[in-house]
Design goal:
97 residues, 3 helices, single chain, GIY-YIG endonuclease, alpha+beta, 3 strands
Length: 97
């Protein structure tokens, strides 16, 4: 999935942690951010819950949009986040024609 998002592209992402919990964040360097999460150098939340797996990522036009999408995804229920990760739901605010 990281190969679909070029380095420098803002995105919102969802990780599945080793304990089954979910973590949502945003970055403009997805591959590097995933490496940092795996190394325990990214977020306090994921540090003791490694390894983590990228469950979902959505490219955004810019940083502001990625941060807004992150806030919207964090408001979703766990079930809704799992549907998003499985590809059975659209990201909040993203509509297909």
């Amino acid at each position: 999935m990281t190969d679909l998002l070029p380095d420098g592209a803002a995105c919102c992402y969802l990780l599945e942690c080793a304990d089954g919990s979910l973590y949502c964040g945003w970055t403009n360097r997805l591959a590097g951010r995933l490496e940092a999460h795996q190394a325990g150098k990214a977020a306090k939340y994921t540090r003791p819950r490694r390894p983590v797996r990228l469950a979902w990522a959505q490219a955004c036009p810019g940083r502001r949009e990625a941060m807004r999408l992150e806030a919207a995804v964090k408001k979703l229920s766990r079930a809704q986040k799992l549907e998003l990760a499985a590809g059975r739901a659209q990201a909040p605010g993203v509509h297909q024609p």
